[in-house]
Amino acid sequence: MRLKYVQSLAIVAAAVGILGGGSALAKGTSPQRMPYTTVDHPQFVPASEATFMSAGDVLIGVSSGDVAKAYPAALLAQHGVVQDQMADGPIAITW
Asked: Terminus of the chain with fewer CB atoms < 10 Å: N or C?
């Protein structure tokens, strides 16, 4: 089953590469480099206090045991990666 899943991902990635002709590589130009700065040790607020979020905002969620964390996709788009810690070890979230 795992092999089929990996093959499916490869097919989807290939299709995106073929259909996504708007990329800088497809246009023969250099991709724009963004100065990503990793977020290390993010601080969290309870959902009831996250008044800076809107109903339409995209979140990336991670849960392990009774711990759940949410990372705004907009933050990930700006920074590229968040390095955080869960009870069973370090994690990295990318978008």
From this structure: N
